[in-house]
Design goal:
Layout: E1 5-11, H1 13-25, H2 33-44, H3 47-84, H4 102-135, H5 153-171, H6 180-191, H7 199-257, E2 261-264, E3 275-279, E4 286-293, E5 297-304, H8 311-337, E6 340-347, H9 362-376
Antiparallel strand pairs: 1-5, 1-6, 2-3, 3-4, 4-5
Amino acid sequence: MSSGVEAEIVLDMAVVLTLGMNRVLGRGAGIAGRGAEALAALAEGRAEARAAALAEVETQERALREVVARNARIEALAETRDRLGAADVPLPAELRPDERPVEELTEWCTSTDRLLDEAERRLSEHLAAEVTAQVFAAPAEGLRTDTTRRPEPATDEDERAAVQQSLARILARLLPDASDAEKRAVADAARLLAGITTADEAEGVLHEVRLRIQDANGRVQERREDERRRAAERDAAEQAEAERRYVLDSITAAFEDLGYEVQAGFETLTAGDGTVTLTKGAWPDHSVRMRVDDAAHVRASMVRERPAESEDDRRVDVEREREWCEAFEDARARLEAAGIRSDVSWRLDPGVRELPVSAGSRHTRTRAGQRERSRERPK
């Protein structure tokens, strides 16, 4: 390895899971607790202890994610309740994720599921009662099973009540987070009951209401699935950034321990770049540019700050390359202890090729400016 090296990065599962827990708990990207135990057991070759610690980390991380999912559902139902004006429908309080026992988190999720199912049912009933009241707000002429004679008032009222009960039961199937347009479509169909004259007509209208509710519920499920997908994509992006940041921080710590100065450019503060520059006090003319792509690939390149002008300069280049090669192998060992395994996919031996000159050096800028001015001269 001289002016260039590329390596594939694989994060240990203990690191991945712990970073996920840290994001849920709102903490930094450090590895602590059972995650640290799993890494220590890996380094010491204690397979059983590692498996036990890793299983505990995985269980804890999964339980925390389940809590987050329930909190999101509570928030969504609270918005629906406010929109429907159903303040009498109780909702459980959200649970702040923390490091309480897994059994306690699981028990909370189970009891909360029952409460949320009941709240959704009551919200659907509230919506059904609202639409039913609108449909039957005005007195109807009554349902006639025989159009040749007017039925007795008692029979008329019985049929009216039966239809109203059927409508309320069918409307209760409408999911409470249906859109206003979807609710209007269902209500418009239900209002046709006000003008029917026979039981057959009533059944036809009720069938249409059922179809519109099925359509509305299908759209609601699609929106819910879309939201789950978007949430999963956001979570994956946040996890990827946490992993990238962990790799960068670990690389920084490893090379600083080896006596290097690690400088991060402005771009490193964003999610779109992961470039750092390594320098040493004894390296006035050399530096190493390293870039981490998506916590999965690392590339490093040694460069000169000014062009080599003599054989002595090139001899120093080879010495610096060998020094950097040894430091890189030392850093790989340190990174592996932090749960970051790197498999070198490409490298050059010291002295194989002339070191490139840094694009940001004063000499490079001067030569580039001279070439530009040369092109601008009239011929």
